[in-house]
Amino acid sequence: MSSQISTFSSEPGGQSACDTDKYEQWLTFLRHNIFEHKLGRGFPRHKDFHVKALGRSVDDWAVSRIVTTAGKSQLIRDSREVAAYPRARYMAYLSLRDDIEFEQFNRHVKCQRASLTLVSGNDPLIHSKMGDNDTLCLGMPSDFVEQRYPKAEQLCAVRISTEGGIGSLVQDAFSTLHRESTRMSADEFRSAARIVGDLILLALGSQAAPSSSTSFVRTSNLARAKRIVRARLSDPELTPRDVASECRISVSYLHNLFRDDGRTFREYLVGERLQQARAMLEIGAANSIADVAMACGFPNMSSFSTAFRGAFSASPREFARVGFTTLM
């Protein structure tokens, strides 16, 4: 059993988060309490950006409170990082002050004060804070979430209010879990975190009942196949056989799963690559358009440009931020 209490502080008037040692400590805190690995890119090292955080983790469960002041911040987990570090939690974010913005599964959501959002650490994600913020975060194991909701991606990057009803109960339980977390034994913490996790999923999935029997098996296999595809978007040689083998199902069954979901395997793969490319172009998260094409699994610029224009009726450069910059 792995159990850890983590703290991080970069206060105004002292060292800022842009200092190298502090910055590395901040990434370590995120690894223990958010994505379970060291992120390659995070917020710009701005001298006025400051963070104060406290987290408790036991195995794959983690709760933390993060307060940021004096500046914008951004965390990016792209398809290359997903492929390199595929094991990650689902994260529930509860905003206590100001807004957090998330982009995932081709959805953009602003998590405002007194609202809750779930995101998947197993999939590409852009997480932005536009100013001062106070946030509670609960990390939940992937298996815990997906056993309850095989199509867990439908719960991600949507916002629900925590003012009234079950949302109010979630906020109270979430806040209490964090406040008391350091006083709990490891077993107590894990049991309490599971209860809060169930409340969060109940609130998010109140209109979507979990599947059962044959439907449960099919939706579980489809969700796993999609997750594998999204994790390997940068691989230009990814084939249905590769995905089927990793899912331990037949290629024909894989194709049936995607057709029943409304798109062929090929359509889903290309669609996800194009959406990821568009997001990277819009935020300038690469040094060049060629780098974007490569990161999203297109074998050459010609095929990328043709597919991109066909999907969005514009060239990649028309979507690109003027002058490419690399975060971090």
Question: Could you characterize the architecture of this molecule?
Answer:
The chain is an alpha+beta fold. It has 2 domains: 202 residues, Jelly Rolls, CATH 2.60.120; 101 residues, Homeodomain-like (Arc Repressor Mutant, subunit A). The chain has 12 helices and 11 strands. The longest helix is centred in the middle third of the chain and has 19 residues. The two termini are 34 Å apart.
Features:
328 residues; alpha+beta; Jelly Rolls; Arc Repressor Mutant, subunit A; seven-stranded antiparallel sheet; four-stranded antiparallel sheet; 12 helices; 44% helix; disordered C terminus
SSE diagram, text form:
Elements: E1 3-10, H1 20-35, E2 50-58, E3 61-69, E4 73-77, H2 79-84, E5 90-97, E6 100-104, E7 107-111, E8 115-120, E9 125-129, E10 133-140, H3 142-148, E11 159-161, H4 165-180, H5 186-204, H6 213-231, H7 240-247, H8 251-260, H9 265-283, H10 289-295, H11 301-312, H12 316-319
Antiparallel strand pairs: 1-2, 2-3, 3-10, 4-9, 5-8, 5-10, 6-7, 6-9, 8-11
